[in-house]
Known about the structure:
Elements: H1 2-6, E1 11-14, H2 16-22, E2 30-34, H3 38-44, E3 49-51, E4 59-64, E5 67-73, E6 75-78, E7 88-91, H4 95-100, E8 110-112, E9 116-118, H5 123-129, E10 131-132, H6 138-144, H7 147-159, E11 162-163, H8 165-173, H9 183-195, H10 199-205, H11 207-213, H12 222-230, H13 235-244, H14 251-256, H15 261-276, H16 281-291, H17 293-307, H18 312-320, H19 332-337, H20 344-358, H21 366-385
Parallel strand pairs: 2-5, 10-11
Antiparallel strand pairs: 1-2, 1-8, 3-4, 4-5, 6-7, 8-9
Helix pairs in contact: 7-9, 7-10, 9-13, 10-12, 13-15, 15-17, 16-17, 16-18, 20-21
Residues 15-16, 28-29, 31, 102-103, 107-108, 145, 147-148, 151 line the site of adenosine-5'-triphosphate.
Amino acid sequence: MCRLEDAQKSCWVVGGCVRDSLMGKMPTDWDMTTFATPQEMTDIFADKRLLLAGLSHGTVGVIEDGQVYEITTFRLESGCSDHRHPDKVLFTDNIVQDLTRRDFTINAMAYHPQRGLLDCFGGQLDLQQGIIRCVGQPDMRFEEDALRILRALRFAAVLDFSIEQDTLRAMRQKAALLREISVERIWSELEKLLKAPAAGKVLSVCPKIFREILLEMPAIDTCDAEVLSKLPQDAVLRIIWLYGRLEKNAAPALKRLRCPNVAVQRAQVFHQLQMDAPSNTLELRYALNRFGEVAVEEYVLLRRLIDKTEFSDNLKSAKAGCWKAAQLCINGKELLDLGCPRGKEVGEVLEGLLKLCIEEKLDNTATVLRQEAQKQIAEIKNRKQQ
Ligand code: ATP
Ligand code: MG
């Protein structure tokens, strides 16, 4: 910052870090905006490690002490025919113009060590009163970039703020434009939103907006909103719960948002478990065998939240027994030593032994398993001779 100032290129801290500092929170990243052009910045910071991926829209990342400082040339944007990207990015020498292109009043403040806080749109007051309000005319701002609709909801959920009436009206009116936004940008905002403390409240205020991005999202009342906000801060888990309340599968919605495969799989497995509904020790032990510990624990947690059924004692006893081949007190090599034919027969015997242990018809001890294995191997050999 000093270097830019020394070069007569005024430089301001801007956006989220000003907002967070005014709220007494330590900002996670530092964004700055400057009169210097990208070329001038790369010259001024020639001796530093730089990130230049954002150069075409005026951003240079300067790395110092392991921290990235993103510095962007004062910018204004014009036109936005696709509701996603400005048609033209113009550099300007005017910090106020740069602030005018920013989304919400609380994000449109800048700070300069000598000149102090620059707050042209009442951001500080909105911050004190807990209000998300567009900079400028809301309909136009959402038409320029419909992702701002979701960003408004994200900030409302993270900060537990309310959304100013005219901004909210425009968000509802322009919600369909969200369909034109790339799913990657949507997921990145949605994930932050769903993890946030006031996520439930926000979902219950604007169900129609969420239906534009979350396929057939089930409605949520104030009671559900409270439950949601108490769930672990895990966006995927919260989505699974949202759908699971109505026995719906969240996997297609996650897939459409191109969430990582593990997330889609997780939703699919929960839905399968919800349909199978294992509840006693034996059923849960089979579920552990088929889906693994993490999935079954999640199922038990979510069932408790969804319909107040409590399976944790049963799960404990299920886990206390043997439920996977690796736990058996015998292995494939020992079966071969006992004369088991090489090939699929080894797996067959192990599976047979596991089934008997899962059902507690056999003790999982080396002696008992060896005895039973010998019996089964003899049967296999008999079968083969016939
Ligand atoms: P976070 O704490 O999540 O980083 P942030 O406010 O810093 O919050 P960023 O996405 O990092 O959010 O964006 C930095 C700043 O850039 C914002 O504060 C805002 O001024 C501006 N900004 C970001 N996205 C948009 C957008 N879609 N439209 C207008 N301004 C935006
Ligand atoms: Mg930021």
